[in-house]
Structures are given as structure tokens and as C-alpha cells.
Design brief:
With 423 residues, the protein is mainly alpha-helical. It has 18 helices and eight strands. The protein folds into four domains: 88 residues, no CATH class; 102 residues; 168 residues, Intergrase catalytic core (hpI Integrase, Chain A), CATH 1.10.443.10; 29 residues. Helices cover 53% and strands 8% of the residues. Strands 1-2-3 form a three-stranded antiparallel sheet. The chain has a three-stranded antiparallel sheet with strand order 4-5-8. The protein has a two-stranded antiparallel ribbon with strand order 6-7. Helix 7 runs antiparallel to helix 8 and helix 16 packs across helix 17. The chain starts with a helix and ends with a helix. The N terminus is likely disordered.
Length: 423
């Protein structure tokens, strides 16, 4: 066939004419193809007359015709299913296998990560900006790294598996769990809100990727009031002593010490909002519970907080950083090591959260508060409270509660006899 015959009288190759004809026949006259810097350029004309174009990652040649048609179909389906514009939908078009590439796909993952960050922090308020930078941003950088490692991941489960293998940590560890969970949230966002292909969705069950601890992490246990008295006596710095007293008397999380102030009615207004995947806590007012042997300590703490003397020590802006700061200080105190050794010998485990746990135990044992009331004071749900603190309702605690109930019943019986005697 002569060159003139192959190109036709217009000088346009026959494969170009055929390809453009197929596009118009399948998608209508609002769709057109042209060549742009050696690649296929797709243009869509909207009903209002506006046009939008995107250059496909496909060479402008006859061997690419089938791939071009497949990508146009995929783009149009995503536009219609997810109500996306041409360029947004084209972001999620797969690269053809006939061209080598250093990318796992032509999805603009950096743009998706930025949109995911905006969704989590600004749109929904599910995360504070500081939490994103501390917890999520490192994982997003790791995701970007594994997306460019060969063999390239081609779907969500493969991406998570590569992330686990490259950065996973010990099975069941909190670092590995958070890494997999945050990356899975990104994938869910990409599929459900950004129009990525459904094969990028993470598996519904992440347990196989997170793994299970070979040795279960020990939960911290409450510090008793006698232990607390000994500890406070061994803290020479009045700033850190005030912090420990604050946590113990009001059952705070370490970071909440930076987000509270006394009220005129003798309570502590806690404004910190803890955000998790299950929801957010609400600001609350807490009444102090004095440790046995330290009467009026709660009022003293409120008085010192109100006048700002002494100032609380530097604690950081997140619960983890705040807890680590307190841990670092306590680890320098001989009395803390002594108390921890004694606790370990008794099968217990003291941490910075033991002050909060001690408040819960004091609320139940000494004050006789119900789990619902105590949960509200501590700023978590009744379910969380029962799960965490129910394990400490041992035989001694039950006996104490029964004896207190019997005493209350005896008082009521005596009052009843007196009423009957006077009538």
C-alpha cells in the first residue's frame, strides 16, 4: 500500500481516523482525541460549551489504540459514577503495561494525600493538625516510598503488605497497627471520595496485616493512695509535684493538664478534646477526689492552678509526648523505681496512667460512685470504663462494696425504726 493510501487524501493516518471515529461512536461528539507531545490528548466538551483536556500517559501511535479506548471508557465511567471532572477522573487511570514506568500507577497519590489531610483536619475535624503531623504524616511518607518500590503494588492489599514488610515492626505492636490503619484509611478515602479504582480498597479485616503480639503488652494498674503519698514526698520539684497531684486528684490524662482551669464553683474545667476513629470526647467539669491521707489536696491544687504558682512543667502537645515527659522525670526519682519494683513483685505495673487509674479506683472504693458517674468524670464512655476498670474489681473490692451497701441498709433500717417509734 502506498503512503498516500495509508494516510488517506487528508494526510491523516488511517488508524487515527478510525480511532477518532470509534471514540465519537462510543461516547458522542463531546469527546475528541488529538496528539500532544507524542502522547494521546483527550478533550471533553461539556453541555455548557466549556472544554477540558488531559494528556493520557499513552504514546500517540497505532499500537496504543486499544489502550486509549479502554482508558477513555474508564475515565468516563469514573466521571459519571463519582461526579468528577475530566482531569480529576483521569488522575486514577492506570498506566498501560506496554510502557515501563517507575510508578505503580498514574494515580496522583500526593494530591490524594493532601486531600485526605484536608478531609481529616479541616473538613471533618477528626484530627488536630498537630496529630496529623505527628501520627499520620510519617505513614503517608512511607506509603509514598513503597508505591515506588519494585515490584510495584497494583492494589490496596498489595500496598499494605509492602508497607508491613518495609516498616511493619513487631506483629501486633502499636506502631504496626497504626501504620496499617492510617494507610487503610487513606485507601478508603481514595476509593470512596477520590474516585480510585475499587481494587485499591483495603481488605475489610486488617488483623492478618497487623498481626498478633507474641507477648501481650501489660496494662498499667492503679497507684494506691499510700503509694501516692510516698511518691509525692520524693518529688522535690514543686512543678512536677503539682502535675502528679493534678492527675491523681482529678483523674486526668497527662496531656489534659495543659487544657484545664479552675471554676468558680470549685471544680476543674477540662477543655481537651480527644479525637479517635470512634469519635471525640467532650469538654467536662471534674470534681476532685482527695486521696485518703491527703485531705483538701484537691482544693489546694485548684488554688495553685488559679494563681499560676508554680507553673506546670513543659509537657508537649499530645498525650504520648506528655506521658513521655512525665515518665522521663519520674524515672529520675529513686522513689518511683522503688514503687515500681514493689508493684512488679505484686504482679502490678505502674505507669503515668496509674494516677488516672487510681482516681477511678478511689471513686469506686472510697467514694462509692457508680461506673456511669465515674466514666463521665473521666471523659470516656461507660463501655470503655467497664472494659478498662472492670478488671480491677477483685474479691477485696467486691467485699468492700458489699460491706458499704450493708452499712447503708443498716442506717436506713435504724431511721425506719425511729420513724415508726414516733408515730
Amino acid at each position: 500500500m502506498s503512503p498516500v493510501a495509508a494516510k488517506g487524501r487528508s494526510g491523516t493516518p488511517a488508524w487515527e481516523r478510525d480511532l477518532r471515529s470509534l471514540v465519537k461512536r462510543e461516547h458522542g461528539f463531546g469527546w475528541s482525541l488529538s496528539e500532544q507531545s507524542g502522547k494521546a490528548k483527550l478533550t471533553h466538551r461539556y453541555p455548557d460549551g466549556l472544554r477540558s483536556s488531559v494528556t493520557l500517559n499513552l504514546p500517540w501511535r497505532s499500537s496504543s489504540a486499544t489502550s486509549v479506548l479502554a482508558q477513555i471508557k474508564a475515565i468516563r465511567e469514573r466521571m459519571e459514577e463519582s461526579q468528577l471532572g475530566l482531569q480529576e477522573a483521569a488522575v486514577f487511570t492506570e498506566e498501560p503495561s506496554l510502557e515501563p514506568s517507575n510508578q505503580s500507577c498514574s494515580i496522583d497519590w500526593p494530591s490524594i494525600v493532601r486531600a485526605f489531610q484536608k478531609h481529616k483536619t479541616s473538613d471533618t475535624g477528626a484530627l488536630k493538625p498537630g496529630t496529623w503531623e505527628e501520627m499520620y504524616a510519617p505513614v503517608m511518607r512511607q506509603v509514598d516510598e513503597v508505591l515506588n518500590q519494585r515490584p510495584l503494588p497494583r492494589d490496596g492489599p498489595a500496598l499494605l503488605a509492602k508497607l508491613r514488610d518495609a516498616f511493619g515492626g513487631e506483629p501486633g505492636s502499636s506502631g504496626r497497627r497504626h501504620r496499617i490503619q492510617y494507610a487503610a484509611q487513606l485507601l478508603v478515602f481514595a476509593v470512596s471520595r477520590a474516585g480510585a479504582d475499587r481494587r485499591w480498597a483495603p481488605p475489610q479485616d486488617l488483623s492478618a496485616l497487623i498481626g498478633k503480639r507474641l507477648q501481650q503488652k501489660r496494662d498499667s494498674t492503679p497507684i494506691t493512695d499510700p503509694q501516692l503519698i510516698r511518691l509525692l514526698a520524693g518529688i522535690p520539684d514543686e512543678r512536677w509535684r503539682l502535675l502528679v497531684e493534678l492527675l491523681a486528684c482529678f483523674g486526668l490524662r497527662p496531656v489534659e493538664a495543659k487544657h484545664c482551669r479552675p471554676t468558680v464553683d470549685g471544680k476543674l474545667n477540662v477543655t481537651y478534646v480527644k479525637r479517635t476513629s470512634r469519635g471525640s470526647t467532650k469538654p467536662r467539669k471534674v470534681s476532685g477526689l482527695d486521696p485518703i491521707g491527703l485531705p483538701n489536696l484537691s482544693a489546694s491544687v485548684l488554688e495553685r492552678l488559679a494563681c499560676g504558682r508554680p507553673e506546670l512543667p513543659p509537657m508537649g502537645n499530645s498525650d504520648g509526648v506528655s506521658a513521655n515527659a512525665l515518665t522521663t522525670y519520674l524515672n529520675r526519682r529513686a522513689i518511683w523505681h522503688q514503687l515500681r519494683e514493689e508493684a512488679e513483685a505484686a504482679g502490678e505495673h505502674l505507669t503515668t496512667y496509674s494516677f488516672r487509674h487510681g482516681f477511678a479506683l478511689r471513686a469506686h472504693q472510697a467514694a462509692g460512685l457508680s461506673p456511669r458517674t465515674t466514666a463521665a468524670l473521666m471523659g470516656h464512655s461507660l463501655q470503655t470504663h467497664s472494659t478498662t476498670y472492670g478488671q480491677w474489681t477483685d474479691e477485696q473490692t467486691l467485699d468492700l462494696a458489699v460491706n458499704q451497701a450493708r452499712q447503708r441498709l443498716d442506717v436506713r433500717r435504724r431511721l425506719g425504726r425511729r420513724v415508726r417509734a414516733t408515730t
